[in-house]
Inverse folding.
C-alpha cells in the first residue's frame, strides 16, 4: 500500500476503477447496518435484565430513609439514589438531584430555565439580545440542537487532545458577557473519546467569566465507561476544582445510567453548588411533584453503590471492546499507510472520531448509506450541522454485533478510499 | 341543633365556651393527621404491586409492534401505551403522545413551550406584553402555580355545578386576544368534584377565540375515578366536540395513571389534534430522545386495556368510598342544620370542597393545624392563593385510613363550629 498522494494520475485512475468495482459488489450484498447512534446493543441491555426482578412485591417500598417510593414527593430524588449517583461521579450527595429517565431533558430544562427565568436571579436569557455558547468541536449533536432551538449563537472551539483550546475559551468567556455557557463532554468525549487533562479542568475551573450567569455544562456521560481494564482515563472532579478556585456556582454536572442500565429507562442526575440547587428547585417545584422514585429505587437495589456500577461496567466493556477493536484494526490495516485519514483510539465512551480528507465526509457518508451502512450525518458533530472542512465523521460501534461491525468497517473503509481517490484524481 | 344565625348573643357566648373547651380537649390528644394533598393511601398503592412482577426477565422486551423498550427512541411513546391511554379517555390513539411519570410536568412543558416558542408558529408568549389565563375557581393550586411562574395574569371564573360560567368564559375568550388559555379539570373537578355538563363541553368546544393561540388545558385527571358503581358521571369527549365545531386545534387533553398505578411512577399522556402534535414533537425532539418506555410497557402488560384499568379502579373506589362517606356523614350529622357551611358530595375524584362562612377559612385551617390536622392552605384553590371570600377549603380524604379520616373530620367540624360561632358572636 502506498500513500494516495504519491500515486500518479494513471495509478489513481486504475485505483478508482478497481474501488468502484468493489463498491458495486458491496452494494449488491444488500447490507443493512447502523453505526449512526450511540445505542447500546441487545447484548448490553440483557446485562441489566435482573434489575426487573429486584423491586418486587416482597420488597419494602419504603426506603431506609422513610420515603414511600410509590407515592408523591421527594422533589430532589430519594436519598439512596442521590448517594448512588454522587458516588458514581465522585461528588457529595448533598450536591446532587436525581431526576428521571435520561440526562438530555435535564440539560434541556437547565437551558430552558435560564432562558425563561434566568440564572440565580440574573436576567432571563429570553430578554437578552444575544446569548452565546462555546461549543468544543467536534462535539455532541444533541447539545448543539438544544442551544440552536433557543436561538443561542454557537461558537466552535477546537477540541484538542487534552480538552478544548483553553486560550480561546478564556478569551471568549472573560471578555464577552454574552457568552453564557460551554458544552463539555469531559471524559471519553463524544465523539473524539479524549478526556480533559488535569490542566484543562483546572483552567476551566479558574475562568473569570465576564457574565455572572456563565455556566459550564459538564456532561459527564461517560464517567464509568472505560473500555480497557489497563487503560482508564482519569478526570478531575470539576465541582471541587471550581470550589477551590472560588467559582462554586460556575458548573452544572450531568450524568445518567442510560448507558449503564437501560437507554431511556435509567435515572439521571445533576450535581452543582447549593446555591444553584436552590435556584433549580425554585422552578422545579412548580414543574413537577417529583420524578419516578420507583425506578430510582430499582437502580439503588440493583447496583447498591458506585462499586456495583463499576463492576457492571466491566461487563459492558467486554462486549464493546471487540467492536472497537474490529473497527480500529480494519482502519489500521487498510488505511494506516494511505495517509488519507486520521482517527481516534479512545480508552472509553461510545465513539470513534474519524477525520477524512477535507471535503470528503459528506460523500463518504452518502456512499455508505447507498451501500446499506448508516452513519451519523456528516457535519452533525458541528454547531448548525456545518463542518467547515467537511471532514469529521462519527463512528458509533456499539449497536451492531462485532461481526457486523467488522463488515460495516470494511464498507466504510472502501467508501473512504473510493471518495478520496476520486477526489484526488479529479483535483490532479 | 339550631342554625347558628338564629342564636341569641348569650347562647352564642355559651356555645363558644363549650366549643373552646372541646377544642382544648382535642388538642390534648396530640393528633397527627393529614388531609392536605390528594395522595393515594398505602392500601391503594398496594393494589398495583403485582405490576412489579409483570415486566420480568422472561418477558420479551420488544413490543408486538417491534420496539425494544430498553433502548433509545419512540419519541411519542410505544404504540401499545398510546392505545391504552387513548382507550382510557376515549380518543383515537393517533391523537396521543405518551410521556413520563406524571402529567403535571407535561402541562408545565406545554405552557413553557408556548412561552418560549409560541403555539403552532404564533408569537412566543415571552415576547408578548400580556398573557391571560382563565381559572375556574375553586380550582387546582398546581395549575395556578404554573401560570403564576410564567407571569401569566390569572382571571378567576366561577365554577358552577355544571362547569365554568360559560357566559363569562365566552366574554373573555372571544373579546380579548391576550386570553391564551383556560385551566379545566372537567371531570370530578379538583376540588369541587363536579363534572362539566354536555352543554358546557359543547359551549367550550364552540368558542370563537379572539386569539389564534388560545388553548383549553383539559386536565382529565379523574377520567376513571368513580367512587360509586351506581353514580358515575359521564363527560363528553372534548376532542371530537372541538373537531365537530371546527376547532380541532383548540384543546390539549392531559391524563395520567398517577392515581391508578403509582403516584409519580405512572405514565402520562396528552391527546390533541395532529397539527398540535406536530408542533409539540418539533420541540420535543430536541428535549428528549424519548420517555421511559419500560414503564410504559409495564403498564400495558399489567392493565392490558381500558377495561383492565376500569376493573382496577373499582378496587380503588372500594378503599376510597368509606373515607368520603365518613367525612360526609360527619358533616351531615354535625353541620347539617347549623346553616354555617356548604360542601360538595362528589361521585368521584379525590376531593370534597367545603365552603365555610365568609372570612372563616384561614382561621379554620389554622385551628385544625394547631390540633394536629393538616389541611390544604386556605386560599390555595384560588389564583395567587387569594380566596376573596376566605371561604373555600379543600378536603382530601384519600391518604388517612377511614378511621383516621372520621377522627380528622370530627376535629375539622369542631374547628368550623368554633371559628364560626366566635365570628358570629364578635360581629353581633
Amino acid at each position: 500500500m502506498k500513500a494516495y498522494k504519491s500515486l500518479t494520475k494513471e495509478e489513481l485512475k486504475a485505483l478508482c476503477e478497481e474501488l468502484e468495482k468493489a463498491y458495486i459488489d458491496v452494494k449488491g450484498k444488500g447490507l443493512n447496518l447502523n453505526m449512526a447512534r450511540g445505542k447500546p446493543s441487545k447484548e448490553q441491555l440483557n446485562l441489566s435484565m435482573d434489575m426487573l426482578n429486584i423491586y418486587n412485591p416482597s420488597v419494602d417500598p419504603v426506603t431506609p430513609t422513610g420515603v414511600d417510593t410509590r407515592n408523591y414527593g421527594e422533589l430532589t430524588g430519594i436519598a439512596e439514589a442521590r448517594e448512588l449517583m454522587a458516588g458514581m461521579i465522585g461528588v457529595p450527595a448533598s450536591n446532587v438531584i436525581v431526576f428521571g429517565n435520561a440526562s438530555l431533558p435535564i440539560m434541556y430544562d437547565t437551558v430552558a430555565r435560564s432562558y425563561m427565568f434566568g440564572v440565580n436571579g440574573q436576567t432571563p436569557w429570553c430578554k437578552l439580545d444575544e446569548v452565546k455558547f462555546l461549543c468544543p468541536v467536534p462535539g455532541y449533536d444533541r447539545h448543539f440542537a438544544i442551544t440552536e432551538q433557543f436561538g443561542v449563537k454557537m461558537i466552535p472551539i477546537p477540541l484538542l487532545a487534552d480538552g478544548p483550546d483553553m486560550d480561546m475559551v478564556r478569551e471568549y468567556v472573560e471578555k464577552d458577557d454574552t457568552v453564557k455557557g460551554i458544552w463539555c463532554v469531559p471524559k471519553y468525549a463524544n465523539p473524539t473519546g479524549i478526556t480533559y487533562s488535569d490542566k484543562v479542568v483546572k483552567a476551566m475551573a479558574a475562568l473569570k467569566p465576564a457574565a455572572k450567569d456563565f455556566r459550564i455544562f459538564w456532561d459527564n456521560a461517560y464517567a464509568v465507561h472505560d473500555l480497557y481494564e489497563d487503560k482508564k482515563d482519569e478526570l478531575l472532579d470539576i465541582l471541587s476544582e471550581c470550589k477551590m478556585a472560588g467559582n462554586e456556582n460556575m458548573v452544572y454536572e450531568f450524568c445518567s445510567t442510560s448507558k449503564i442500565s437501560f437507554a431511556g429507562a435509567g435515572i439521571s442526575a445533576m450535581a452543582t453548588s447549593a446555591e444553584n440547587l436552590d435556584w433549580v428547585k425554585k422552578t422545579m417545584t412548580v414543574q413537577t411533584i417529583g420524578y419516578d422514585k420507583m425506578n430510582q429505587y430499582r437502580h439503588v437495589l440493583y447496583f447498591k453503590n458506585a462499586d456495583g456500577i463499576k463492576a457492571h461496567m466491566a461487563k459492558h466493556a467486554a462486549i464493546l471492546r471487540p467492536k472497537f477493536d474490529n473497527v480500529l484494526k480494519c482502519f489500521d490495516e487498510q488505511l494506516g499507510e494511505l495517509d488519507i485519514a486520521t482517527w481516534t483510539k479512545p480508552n472509553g465512551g461510545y465513539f470513534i472520531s474519524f477525520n477524512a480528507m477535507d471535503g470528503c465526509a459528506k460523500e463518504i457518508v452518502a456512499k455508505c448509506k447507498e451501500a446499506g451502512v448508516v452513519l451519523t450525518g456528516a457535519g452533525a458533530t458541528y454547531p448548525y450541522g456545518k463542518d467547515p472542512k467537511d471532514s469529521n465523521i462519527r463512528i458509533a460501534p456499539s449497536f451492531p454485533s462485532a461481526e457486523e461491525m467488522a463488515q460495516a468497517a470494511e464498507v466504510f473503509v472502501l467508501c473512504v478510499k473510493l471518495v478520496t481517490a476520486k477526489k484526488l484524481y479529479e483535483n490532479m
Remarks:
- Chain B touches chain A through 55 residues (CB under 8 Å).
- The radius of gyration of chain B is 23 Å.
- DSSP finds 14 helices and 13 strands in chain B.
- The first strand of chain B starts at residue 33 and ends at 35.
